Structure formats: structure tokens, C-alpha cells
């Protein structure tokens, strides 16, 4: 490939990147505007959440003013956007904490949970899907179908409760609610906010084991849905590949069935699969309120919901922005993966 | 090689009373119902309407299905249901669509090296060079991906891929139907050349009697899973076939095939 | 696929190895599971809700304390003693010597005065109570002052019962004493440390705050320099848990010592458990059905009386309220000397129908019930909906968050509300009446939103003046008689707020916990708690 064409290519890629970033910015702005508007018309009064139902009117008015709610809506919105430009997500109306700091506090717990969940979902879902595809129409396929149907339709709350009863209360395999045994709380310095990593970094293996014990059950239950989804998608992707002629070519070459499946067919669905997994992961990163409630997991989902219920729109906007960014970046990553892994786009 | 073959009395390839039945969504399809033919050193073509079971016969021979009934044998040796490495070295297959039959994420080199590796054949790099040259491609093409090749080049790679294990029998499933007329001619010439140089036996599936005339000695006509007619190629050109279906095929292709043959001869 | 059983076995083995680490709460730590959803701030001037009361009662000290066994008994705290002038206009507190804050600073009367002044100057949620006694941001420097490091004087701006103020000092979260020097070090933009105190403390209490991660965990540890002597527990951990069943499982497994806010079925189940103790304590607030007198229908006393006859008090208290409340029908909290016995209101459909017919609603009418969507509120509301229907009243239930329900009530935008209220924890009739009945100015403009009486637009000049007089009455017997008159009047005039139940709070504790005494005013103190193992 000549220098000329390759530089032309990268220039084209640059403009397409610029184009894409433009779309991203507009999407996020639209998302924020919508959230802002919804927040202002929502019949939830943050002032009342702060001062309580029994405060007198002068206190109410004072707090109302302090929060800037007496300014016209477009002014509030303008100030919000201006602060955002400076990278300031503002302060939570209720606690007065910086929203960025709040999110930085709750998000690692969710990242940790979602990561383990998606690992579980992928490590179980992909082999199941491949198995189902290669055993299409036979009992193995049916079993996988039943498993993924369960994964889809299982009431997470109920499953979480059953999990706790069986694995925690009865068998004592899993830790109870929370991220760690309370006796260990505060023992390791928070560097990443992810206890598994922090405790490993600190070499506190007791703490690490406690964290593992606590995260396994909620993560697996949370991962069930992703597992079902990934298994189903893997199955259909694999079926599409297995009917292709290159698969027969591979067999005719004399490859063993396992090599045909994993080295030929699976290689071809890898990028598609990564996209699916990335999007499922994005969904998990939004937080899972039910699991977080059952397992008293101090994560992003419960933060978002409790902020919403208390009418704390600053916190909600911060969360919405983060979710938007997560999804946009996961999409960009998925696109990039296509570019990198698919020779045809090179 | 030649001596071995002439000494052996059994035909190179034997197909006797082959039956294949598929189950698709509850209903049963009898794709092949009692096909028999022998294949010596001549070239046999199978023609027939779409869905008549041609591909199915080839796939049985290539070891892709294991639910057939009947008898398949190479050199008198009965073939089992399961594909083993030995059979891979004797029988290879080239598919209709050179794009679909090549792995889109494998380079030419990977695609060609893989069978060698599996069968424990050394000298991989040299063999790749020589096979590429044989099918008329520059050796530098080994680093390309399928999408960086033209249709004809892809089919050459597919043929190279099939030939790299030095099989005796080459199963060709409509090897040119996805290609442009002029490119078809190139590939047909290549196949004709290779047959001569490598001493190959072809079993060719096609819709196109022009191709048959160019490349084969005998033609089996299939309809609804059966061979309805078996005739010499020479008879196609001049005489009027007996079987009505064959007659129809011949007539339909007459004009077209002449053009084809001319193009091939000009090339 | 042949490897699958091996894999499973390996998994099971590794999991069971993990499982050998047995958890049991450490002997010197108290582990509390509770919902921290409403814990937004620790600032004594601005923190609402009962959770923060309990926390601050252990991080801070107050001048006086109410005896958890008999809330009428006022016990000394930071104040060794106090005297009330004969004219009831001034209280003088002798502040204990040698008390140190967690910072090491010495606690003086100046700190006490500064802390109480701060509440009014910031004018946050907790200022309301003080303002109702006549304190203002302007007069508070004069009214509450340190005469010397050991003497604090509180002059009442308006005539009132000084007992009431002493009760407030013993029960309100705004009455704890802050380390003024420490707080002022963290002042920002003249906020008197408000931002800092939201997540930090500057107290002298038996425990010091280590870390508070909102809606996750709050950690405090023993303050060795505590003036009463260091507490027995080394550490207290509050863990945010909202799911009742999770609390129950963790209690059963011995991973928490105290569970707050469990659902009734779980509490009932725990009562059968040998290893735990269920403790209920009455609170000052009542569950009630309120109507808006601004609505022409409910302005008619006969309609209000009909509603009173259409509440199934027995049914609600038997089926819905166990562990939430006990039958109570008077506007003054139960258990006070002035409280009259329940009047014995009953569900009486024929009487209600007759009253409605007299009032011009022989076929009833349509109305709405606003209510919190949590138990027991929503259960009370559906029960009420059914009994109202018996009287021909077609009520639709509008569930919402506390914010929505009480917001509508403050805006006087409602017809019927099922709610909870009744003022502070002060064991004084005035506290209940002020919150539920008193309404000195019924105009919309007055915006007396802190008075539930005003919110319902119910106004009775006789009752108002009696309330104002009774709180000034110095003769205890006469005062009681006056409060009883008020209750009789309220019964006759059919007030807009009809109490159903006195609130009860239930905690479930491990059996080995000693000296854990739930306080009716939510100021449960952990300084003497230990585990008997
Ligand atoms: N895997 C399969 N499952 C079910 N039915 C099949 C399967 N493969 C082929 N068939 C059916 O068997 C019959 C023969 O198919 P085959 O592919 O051999 O036809 P063909 O002669 O090669 O046709 P064409 O000329 O269109 O390629 C068709 O009716 C087809 O639908
Ligand atoms: Mg075919």
C-alpha cells in the first residue's frame, strides 16, 4: 500500500472520528437536556427532602433559595452546562457532596460487581452457546435453551434471596450482604475503590478472600441474565457460521471438530460477540438496583435510584451523563474492535 | 502412480446405491435416492436441476455427512462414515463460492499452511510457493486476505488449498458458476492443465453443459436425487439425448456453451 | 465434555474451602443493620429523621438526657444541674468541668451557647422547634448566653413552660454541643461549618466518627477520653441494609447485632428465634387520618364525624399495626399524665351513613387518599378505602413518596391523607398539640407549614387559646386539667386529624447484647452496651 493511499485513509478516518465525536456530543447534550427537563417537572421536591416535612416556611424558602431553585429554569440550565464545561458535575442537592466524588465512591463497587458478573456471564454463556449450536436440535440444545430461558425470566430479587438463604444462611459458602465482612471494613486503604484490587495490592489476603466470598454470589446472580443473552447470541452467531462453506473447507482439510469450531467458526464471531458482551457490560454498569438492595451493595444503581426518589436532580444528571458516556464509549470501542480485528476494514 | 492405478482392478471411486435423507423442521427430504456410479481415470460431471442432490453426493464423498446409506469406496477400500485424515489426503473439494469457502480472517498463507500442519507435512513455505505458482498466482499473494483478491484469484487459492494435500480425486462443486465468463474460462483451463500435470481425477458438479464439454468425458444427469441419464460428452455435442430432461438441458446450453468454449480456446 | 464433572467437583471444593471461614460479630464491636436512605447529613442544625438522632446521641453529648425508662425524668448530661427562676422565664445550667471534645479541646458553656445559637442562625430544618419558642436568629445571642465557662443561661423570649425547653434540650438533635473551635476551623464562606459538619463531627460523645460512606457504612470508634469513662465497645458499625429479609438472614447467622426497620412478617418470625430479642419502644408520633377542612365537604363537622365513624380502629390495629403502632385515638401522645383514655371510637357504618345523609351526602361522594407507598401507611389507606366505601364514600388511593405526600399537605392540596406526625419527642402534651392541632393563623399567606393543624385548615379559637394558656400554667394539676379539656374539645369539635395508633419502633437484637435500651426519643445510647459471651 502506497504512502499516498494510507495517508488518505487516515485523513478520512480522522474526519469520520470528528464526525462521530460530534454525534456523541449532541447525543449527550440531548440526554442531559431531557433529564434536566424531566427533573424539573417531576413532582419531587428536593427542598423538602433536605428540610424534612415539619420545617417551617422560612427555612424552606431559605434552602430553596440556597439551591438556586428560585432562578428561572433556563438560567439554572445555563449554569449547569457552564459548570459542566469546566468538568464540574455540581453538588448533590441533598448532601452537598460533590456529585463527581459521590460517583467516584459508588461506582467502583458497581464496576467490580459488573465485571465479575460479565466474566461469569461470558465464561459460562459462550461455551453454552457454542455447545447448543454444535448440538443443534438435540437434547443439549434444549437444555441450553431451558437454561437461558431461566436466566432471562428469573426474578432477580427472588433469586438473590434464595441464593442468600442457600449459600449464605444454610451452606455458609458465601458471605452475607455487603462487600466485605464488617470486621475487615476499613482495613485496606482505598486506592481504586475496588476491594478485590485494593486488598490484593495491599497483600491483605484475608480481606481479599472475604471480598471474594461476598462478591461471588451477587455477581453470579447478576450475571445470569447476561449469561442467557450471551448464550443465545453465541448460538445464533455460531449457527450462521457453521453453515458456511469455509467450515466445510476446514473439515475437508482434516481439522478436528474442536479446531473447526474454535479456530475457524468461533474466530469469526469473536468481534460480534465482543460487541454483545460490551453492551451487556454497559447494561450492568448502570447498576442493578434489586441485587444491590438484596445484597446491601453500595453501588451506582441504588445511588441513582435513591437520588431520584429524593428529587436530587444534580446527582441524577451526573449519573445519566456517566451512563451516556459509558454507552457511547462502549460503542466506540466495539467499532474500534471491528476495525482492528476484521481484515476487511483495514 | 500410474502403474499402481492400472494394476488395481477396482475403480478409483465407487458409489453404490447412495441414499441420503435430511430432516428439516419435521419433514423428511430424500435428497439422494440410490445413486450409483464408478469413476476411473476419466472425468465425470454431474449435472442437474437445482436441489437435485448434486452437492449432497459430493459432500458425502468429502465426508461431510455421516447419515448416508449405501457404499462408497476408493480403490476398493470402503469408506467409513467418519472423515479421517487419510481420506482428506485422497479426496479434496472445491466449492462454488470461493469467497464463502475461504476464512475471511485467514491470509492465503494461513489457509494453505493449515492442512499441511494438520497432516504433519513439512516444508510448508516451499510448498506454498510451489502451489501458488502452479495455480498461476504470484507467491507474494500469500500475505493477502480473501477480500484483497479478485474472484478468479480467490478460486485459484481455493484450488491451491485443495491441491496442497496432493489428493487423487478432486470434487468440484460448481467451481466457476460464481465467476465472470472470461474468468470462468481461465479457471477451466487451469483445471484442465492441472489434471494433465498432476494426474487428477475430477468429479465435477455443474449446471452448465458447456463446462462439461470442455472438461469432462462423461456426464451423469441427476433429477430428484437419482441419476436419470449417463452419457458420453461427445454425444452431447452432436446427437439429441434420449432423456427429456437431458435434452432440455442440452438445448438450453447450446448457444451459451459455444461462446464459452470459444472464449476458453482463445484464452 | 468428560471434564465437566471434574470441573464441577473442583468448583465445589474450592467454594467449600472458602466457606470454612466462619463469621460472628466481634465481641467488642456493635454491628447495626439499618436503612440509611434518609441519612443525608450529620449536621445537628440541619439533620432530619430519627437515624441521625441515634447517631448524634453517641457522637455528641447534650446538656440533659431523658431517662429511657421514664422520659419524664430528666437526667444530667453535660449540665450537672440546672435551676429555673420562679417566674419561669430563665433557666441556668451548671456545665460540668473537665469534659473534653474528641479534639482535646475543653468543653465550656461558650461551646454550648454557640451550638444552640448556630441552630437559629443557620435557620435549617431543626430551627423550627426553637423558633416556636420565640427564639430568632436576631435575639438568640441575647437569650442564650454563657455567663462564665461553667454557666449557661437560657432566657425564654416568650412565656412558656420551661420544662418543655428542657425536654427539647434532652431530645432534639439540635441540642447537642459542638466543639466551636474545631467547627470554626472548617468554616467556609461564613457557613458556621455547615458543609464540613454534614459528614464530620465535632463532639464529646462516647464514640468518635471514623468514616461515613453514604448509603454504605458508618464507622465509629470508642473515645477513650470520654468523661463518663470509655465505653465498653471498641467500635460501632452501621451498615446500610434496606432489605428486611437480608437483615433477618444476617441476624440469624450472627453477622449483625442489631436490626432496625425489619418488616412485620420478619419481626414475627424472629420472635420465635431463641438467639434474638425483639424490643419495641413507643415513640411520640401517631399514625393518623387527616382531612382538609379547606375542602367544603370536610368543612362540615358531620362529615368529619362520619369519617371518624368509618375508620376500623380495631381492624387496623390488629391486622396492620403490630410492631408499627398501638391503638391510640387522642391528639396527645399516650402515656402522659394528661392523656385521657381512648374515647373508644369504633367503626359504625349506620351512624356514619346517617351523618352523611344529614350533611347532604346520602349517596356519599368521591374523594382521594394520599399516602406513602410504604407499609404500614399504604395498608392503613387500603383498609380505610374499604370502610369508607361502606359509607358510600368512593376514595381513590394516591400513593407517593414522603416528599410527595407531605409536600401536598404543606401546600394544602389534598382531601384525605394517611400520615404520621405529632411533633417532637418531648414528653409534654404541648409538643403533640403544637404539631397536630395548634393553628394560630389559618390564612393561606401565613404558610405555617410546620404546623399540621394549619395544613389541614382546621382552626378552633377556643382550642388555640387553651393551648396557649395551658403551656404557661405553673400548677401541674391545673395544667393537666386544661390539657384534658383540650382533648374533650377536640373530640367534640371533631378535629381534622384523627389519630389511629401511637407509633412503635421495633428493633431486633442478639440475645448476648447487654444494656441496649431503645430510647423512646430515638436517642438510644450505646456507651454502656457490651456483649455477654
Ligand atoms: N442440511 C440439509 N438439511 C435439510 N435438507 C437439505 C440439507 N442439505 C440439502 N438439503 C436438501 O436436499 C436437496 C438436495 O440438495 P443439494 O444441495 O444436494 O442440491 P443441488 O443439486 O446441489 O442444488 P444446487 O444446484 O441448487 O446447488 C435439496 O432439496 C435441499 O433442500
Ligand atoms: Mg449445490
From TrEMBL, chain A:
Domain of life per record: Bacteria
An example Gene Ontology CC term for this record: plasma membrane
Listed InterPro entries: BPD_transp_1_N, MetI-like, MetI-like_sf
PROSITE patterns attached to this UniProt entry: ABC_TM1
Domain ABC transmembrane type-1: 107-338
Keyword Cytoplasm among record annotations: no
Protein location: Cell membrane
Annotated TM spans: 21-39, 113-134, 146-171, 211-231, 265-295, 315-338
Keywords carried by this UniProt record: Cell membrane, Membrane, Transmembrane, Transmembrane helix, Transport
Predominant subcellular localization, coarse grouping: membrane
UniProt membrane topology term: Multi-pass membrane protein
Cited CDD domains: TM_PBP2
Family as reported in the entry's similarity comment: Belongs to the binding-protein-dependent transport system permease family.
Protein name: ABC transporter permease
From TrEMBL, chain C:
Classification via SUPFAM superfamilies: Periplasmic binding protein-like II (SSF53850)
MF terms in GO: peptide transmembrane transporter activity
Keywords for the protein's UniProt record, in alphabetical order: Signal, Transport
Signal peptide region: 1-23
Gene Ontology CC: ATP-binding cassette (ABC) transporter complex; outer membrane-bounded periplasmic space
Pfam families associated with the record: SBP_bac_5
Domain Solute-binding protein family: 74-443
Subcellular location(s) per record: Cell envelope
UniProt cross-references to CDD domains, sorted A to Z: PBP2_NikA_DppA_OppA_like_7
GO process annotations (BP): peptide transport
UniProt xrefs under PANTHER family: PERIPLASMIC BINDING COMPONENT OF ABC TRANSPORTER, PERIPLASMIC OLIGOPEPTIDE-BINDING PROTEIN-RELATED
Family classification: Belongs to the bacterial solute-binding protein 5 family.
Listed name of the protein: ABC transporter substrate-binding protein
Organism whose genome encodes this protein: Candidatus Dactylopiibacterium carminicum
Lineage: Bacteria, Pseudomonadati, Pseudomonadota, Betaproteobacteria, Rhodocyclales
Amino acid at each position: 500500500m502506497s504512502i499516498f493511499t494510507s495517508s488518505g485513509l487516515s485523513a478520512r478516518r480522522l474526519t469520520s472520528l470528528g464526525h462521530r465525536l460530534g454525534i456523541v456530543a449532541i447525543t449527550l447534550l440531548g440526554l442531559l437536556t431531557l433529564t434536566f427537563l424531566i427533573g424539573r417537572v417531576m413532582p419531587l421536591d428536593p427542598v423538602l427532602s433536605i428540610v424534612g416535612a415539619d420545617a417551617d416556611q422560612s427555612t424552606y424558602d431559605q434552602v430553596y433559595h440556597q439551591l438556586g431553585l428560585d432562578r428561572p429554569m433556563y438560567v439554572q440550565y445555563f449554569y449547569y452546562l457552564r459548570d459542566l464545561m469546566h468538568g464540574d458535575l455540581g453538588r448533590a442537592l441533598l448532601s452537598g457532596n460533590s456529585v463527581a466524588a459521590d460517583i467516584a465512591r459508588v461506582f467502583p463497587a458497581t464496576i467490580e460487581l459488573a465485571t465479575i458478573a460479565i466474566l461469569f456471564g461470558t465464561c459460562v454463556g459462550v461455551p453454552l452457546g457454542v455447545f447448543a449450536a454444535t448440538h443443534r436440535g438435540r437434547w443439549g440444545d434444549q437444555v441450553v435453551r431451558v437454561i437461558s430461558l431461566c436466566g432471562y425470566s428469573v426474578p432477580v430479587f427472588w433469586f438473590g434471596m434464595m441464593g442468600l438463604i442457600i449459600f449464605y444462611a444454610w451452606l455458609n459458602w458465601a458471605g452475607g450482604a455487603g462487600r466485605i465482612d464488617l470486621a475487615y471494613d476499613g482495613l485496606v486503604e482505598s486506592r481504586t475503590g475496588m476491594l478485590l484490587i485494593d486488598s490484593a495490592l495491599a497483600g491483605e489476603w484475608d480481606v481479599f478472600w472475604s471480598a471474594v466470598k461476598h462478591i461471588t454470589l451477587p455477581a453470579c446472580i447478576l450475571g445470569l441474565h447476561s449469561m442467557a443473552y450471551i448464550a443465545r447470541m453465541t448460538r445464533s452467531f455460531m449457527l450462521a457460521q457453521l453453515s458456511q462453506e469455509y467450515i466445510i473447507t476446514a473439515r475437508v482439510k482434516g481439522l478436528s471438530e474442536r479446531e473447526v469450531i474454535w479456530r475457524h467458526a468461533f474466530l469469526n464471531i469473536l468481534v460480534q460477540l465482543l460487541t454483545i458482551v460490551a453492551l451487556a457490560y454497559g447494561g450492568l454498569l448502570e447498576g442493578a438496583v434489586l441485587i444491590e438492595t438484596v445484597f446491601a451493595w453500595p453501588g451506582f444503581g441504588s445511588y441513582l435510584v435513591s437520588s431520584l426518589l429524593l428529587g436530587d436532580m444534580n446527582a441524577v444528571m451526573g449519573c445519566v451523563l456517566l451512563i451516556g458516556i459509558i454507552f457511547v464509549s462502549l460503542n466506540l470501542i466495539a467499532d474500534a474492535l471491528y476495525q482492528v480485528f476484521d481484515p476487511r476494514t483495514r | 502412480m500410474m502403474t499402481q492405478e492400472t494394476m488395481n482392478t477396482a475403480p478409483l471411486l465407487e458409489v453404490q446405491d447412495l441414499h441420503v435423507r435430511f430432516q428439516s423442521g419435521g419433514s423428511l427430504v430424500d435428497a439422494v435416492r440410490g445413486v450409483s456410479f464408478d469413476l476411473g481415470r476419466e472425468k465425470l460431471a454431474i449435472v442437474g436441476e437445482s436441489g437435485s442432490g448434486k452437492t449432497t453426493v459430493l459432500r458425502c464423498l468429502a465426508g461431510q455427512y455421516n447419515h448416508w446409506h449405501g457404499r462408497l469406496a476408493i480403490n476398493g477400500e470402503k469408506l467409513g462414515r467418519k472423515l479421517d485424515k487419510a481420506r482428506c489426503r485422497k479426496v479434496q473439494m472445491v466449492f462454488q463460492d470461493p469467497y464463502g469457502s475461504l476464512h475471511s480472517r485467514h491470509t492465503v498463507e494461513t489457509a494453505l499452511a493449515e492442512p499441511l500442519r494438520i497432516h504433519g507435512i513439512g516444508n510448508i513455505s516451499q510448498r506454498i510457493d510451489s502451489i501458488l505458482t502452479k495455480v498461476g498466482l504470484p507467491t507474494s499473494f500469500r500475505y493477502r486476505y480473501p477480500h484483497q483478491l479478485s474472484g478468479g484469484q480467490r478460486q485459484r487459492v481455493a484450488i491451491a488449498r485443495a491441491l496442497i494435500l496432493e489428493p487423487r480425486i478432486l470434487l468440484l462443486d460448481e467451481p466457476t458458476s460464481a465467476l465472470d465468463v472470461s474468468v470462468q474460462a481461465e479457471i477451466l483451463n487451469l483445471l484442465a492443465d492441472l489434471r494433465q500435470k498432476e494426474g487428477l481425477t475430477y468429479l465435477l458438479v455443474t449446471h452448465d453443459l458447456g463446462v462439461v464439454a470442455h472438461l469432462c468425458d462423461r456426464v451423469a444427469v441427476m433429477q430428484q436425487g437419482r441419476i436419470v441419464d449417463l452419457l458420453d460428452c461427445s454425444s452431447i455435442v452432436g446427437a439429441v439425448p434420449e432423456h427429456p430432461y437431458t435434452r432440455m438441458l442440452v438445448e438450453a446450453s447450446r448457444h451459451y456453451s459455444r461462446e464459452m468454449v470459444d472464449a476458453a480456446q482463445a484464452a | 465434555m468428560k471434564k465437566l464433572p471434574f470441573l464441577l467437583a473442583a468448583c465445589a471444593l474450592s467454594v467449600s474451602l472458602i466457606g470454612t471461614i466462619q463469621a460472628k460479630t466481634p465481641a467488642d464491636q456493635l454491628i447495626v443493620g439499618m436503612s440509611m436512605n434518609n441519612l443525608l447529613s450529620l449536621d445537628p442544625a440541619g439533620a432530619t429523621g430519627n437515624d441521625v438522632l441515634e447517631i448524634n446521641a453517641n457522637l455528641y453529648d447534650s446538656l440533659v438526657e431523658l431517662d429511657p425508662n421514664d422520659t419524664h425524668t430528666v437526667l444530667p448530661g453535660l449540665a450537672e444541674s440546672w435551676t429555673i427562676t420562679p417566674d419561669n422565664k430563665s433557666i441556668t445550667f451548671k456545665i460540668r468541668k473537665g469534659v473534653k471534645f474528641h479534639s482535646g479541646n475543653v468543653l465550656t458553656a461558650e461551646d454550648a451557647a454557640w451550638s444552640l445559637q448556630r441552630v437559629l442562625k443557620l435557620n435549617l430544618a431543626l430551627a423550627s422547634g426553637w423558633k416556636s419558642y420565640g427564639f430568632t436568629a436576631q435575639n438568640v445571642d441575647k437569650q442564650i448566653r454563657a455567663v462564665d465557662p461553667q454557666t449557661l443561661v437560657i432566657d425564654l423570649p416568650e412565656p412558656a413552660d420551661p420544662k418543655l425547653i428542657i425536654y427539647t434540650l434532652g431530645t432534639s438533635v439540635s441540642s447537642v454541643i459542638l466543639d466551636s473551635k474545631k467547627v470554626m476551623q472548617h468554616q467556609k464562606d461564613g457557613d458556621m461549618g455547615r458543609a464540613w459538619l454534614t459528614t464530620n463531627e465535632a463532639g464529646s460523645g462516647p464514640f468518635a466518627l471514623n468514616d461515613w460512606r453514604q448509603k454504605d457504612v458508618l464507622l465509629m470508634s470508642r473515645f477513650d477520653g470520654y468523661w463518663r469513662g470509655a465505653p465498653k465497645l471498641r467500635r460501632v458499625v452501621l451498615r446500610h441494609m434496606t432489605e428486611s429479609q437480608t437483615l433477618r438472614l444476617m441476624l440469624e447467622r450472627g453477622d449483625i447485632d442489631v436490626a432496625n426497620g425489619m418488616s412485620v412478617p420478619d419481626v414475627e418470625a424472629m420472635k420465635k428465634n431463641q438467639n434474638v430479642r425483639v424490643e419495641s419502644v413507643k415513640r411520640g408520633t401517631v399514625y393518623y387520618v387527616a382531612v382538609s377542612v379547606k375542602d367544603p365537604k370536610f368543612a362540615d363537622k358531620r362529615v368529619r364525624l362520619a369519617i371518624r365513624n368509618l375508620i376500623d380502629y380495631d381492624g387496623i390495629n390488629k391486622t396492620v399495626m403490630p410492631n408499627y403502632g398501638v391503638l391510640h385515638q387522642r391528639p396527645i401522645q399516650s402515656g402522659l399524665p394528661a392523656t385521657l383514655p381512648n374515647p373508644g371510637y369504633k367503626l359504625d357504618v349506620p351512624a356514619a351513613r346517617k351523618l352523611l345523609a344529614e350533611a347532604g351526602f346520602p349517596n356519599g361522594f368521591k374523594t382521594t387518599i394520599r399516602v406513602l407507598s410504604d407499609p404500614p401507611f399504604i395498608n392503613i389507606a387500603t383498609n380505610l378505602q374499604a370502610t369508607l366505601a361502606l359509607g358510600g364514600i368512593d376514595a381513590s388511593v394516591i400513593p407517593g413518596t414522603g416528599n410527595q405526600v407531605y409536600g401536598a399537605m404543606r401546600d394544602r392540596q389534598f382531601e384525605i391523607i394517611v400520615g404520621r406526625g405529632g411533633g417532637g419527642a418531648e414528653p409534654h402534651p404541648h409538643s403533640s398539640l403544637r404539631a397536630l392541632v395548634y393553628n394560630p393563623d389559618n390564612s393561606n399567606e401565613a404558610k405555617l407549614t410546620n404546623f399540621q393543624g394549619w395544613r389541614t385548615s382546621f382552626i378552633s379559637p377556643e382550642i388555640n387559646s387553651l393551648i396557649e394558656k395551658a403551656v404557661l400554667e405553673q400548677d401541674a394539676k391545673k395544667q393537666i386539667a386544661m390539657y384534658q379539656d383540650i382533648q374533650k374539645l377536640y373530640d367534640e369539635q371533631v378535629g381534622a386529624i384523627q389519630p389511629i395508633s401511637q407509633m412503635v419502633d421495633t428493633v431486633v437484637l442478639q440475645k448476648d447484647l447487654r444494656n441496649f435500651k431503645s430510647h423512646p426519643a430515638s436517642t438510644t445510647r450505646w456507651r454502656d452496651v457490651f456483649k455477654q459471651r
